[in-house]
Design a protein that fits this description.
Number of strands: 14
CATH topology of the largest domain: D-Maltodextrin-Binding Protein, domain 2
Number of domains: 3
Structural class: alpha/beta
Distance between the termini: 54 Å
Shape: elongated
Oligomer: single chain
Order of helices and strands: HHHEEHEHHEEEEHEEEEHEHEEH
Strand content: 15-25%
Largest sheet: 5 strands, mixed
Number of helices: 10
Helix content: 25-40%
CATH class of the largest domain: Alpha Beta
């Protein structure tokens, strides 16, 4: 195999990371036919099938899995070396791929993306919105962003956002029909809008005051897996919602929603950016951390 086949290996690695020829084409900025031609040529040169193709999916064969396990770290090192060289000239560059929950994307990242793009024009920021934890390395992510949840020991976590609070809210009309709760235990007599996690479990509303921590299994006829839908249902008068304060701050200020149990909702550490400790931090990721810790710390 010739050294000139390195571009084909890069294309193959992109197809493996995206599980798609079209996704790899978008990532690399070439046509899908060019991606297919590169992979077919690589398979012909090696004499083995690397990808199992169907009309709906692309998956690694056993040989393809072995190859990507060997070349993946090497390609990452090459990319990092090129980016380090570019960064030495004062300009972080390259694609930065992050796994980010929807609330972090909406509340923290999206409002600052224009300024980030202007500050780092050579960095391509790709956000994949997903609430559950993923294997960053296997899924081709540089880093992830989550609340201060338990992370694996081989992860480095960096605080990247301000403290946050939860807010229990409903419309004034709702509280004309139901007396406002004075204690979290009163929620059992209320119509609450539930939230289901990506993993399938129902969220138990968490409260704390004067060292006393409570988890309340609420009841209601509506359950969503996304905060905006919960907020919309609360604004429609469907019941009590428990969401991040920042998501409903304007509605509380305008009187559209009334907050209750505020003394039971202390601040907690906000979002953290995490990445594998064994992976050298890329200049583009360092630029992201420096920018967003500064932007959200003002």
């Amino acid at each position: 195999m010739a050294r000139t086949d390195l571009p084909a290996l890069t294309v193959f690695a992109s197809v493996a990371a995206n599980s798609s020829f079209r996704g790899a084409a978008t990532q690399l900025g070439i046509s899908p036919s060019a991606v297919s031609h590169a992979v077919s040529g690589l398979e012909a040169a090696l004499g083995v099938r690397l990808l199992a193709r169907t009309t709906r999916s692309v998956a690694l064969t056993e040989a393809g899995s072995r190859l990507i396990a060997r070349i993946g770290p090497a390609l990452e090192e090459i990319a990092a070396a090129l980016e380090d060289t570019a960064a030495a000239g004062g300009r972080p560059a390259g694609r930065l791929r992050l796994s980010v929950p929807l609330q972090a994307a909406e509340l923290m990242v999206a409002p600052q993306t224009g300024h980030f793009a202007a500050a780092y024009p050579d960095v391509t920021l790709e956000l994949v919105v997903q609430d559950g934890f993923v294997d960053l390395v296997a899924s081709g992510f540089d880093a992830g962003m989550r609340l201060g949840e338990s992370l694996e020991q081989d992860m480095i976590a960096i605080r990247i956002g301000p403290d946050m609070r939860m807010a229990a809210v409903a419309t004034p009309d709702y509280f004309q029909r139901f007396p406002p709760p004075l204690h979290p235990s009163d929620l059992r007599r209320h119509v609450c809008i539930g939230r289901r996690f990506t993993g399938g479990g129902l969220y138990r509303w968490e409260f704390e005051k004067d060292g006393e921590a409570l988890e309340i299994a609420v009841d209601g006829r509506l359950v969503f897996n996304e905060g905006r839908l919960i907020t919309a249902a609360a604004l429609a008068g469907a019941g009590l919602a428990y969401v991040m304060e920042a998501m409903v701050a304007d509605e509380i200020a305008s009187g559209k929603l009334t907050r209750v149990l505020g003394d039971w909702c202390p601040p907690f550490p906000g979002f953290f950016l995490y990445y594998p400790s064994r992976r050298q931090m890329r200049p583009a990721l360092r630029a992201f951390i420096d920018f967003f810790t500064g932007a959200n710390g003002e």
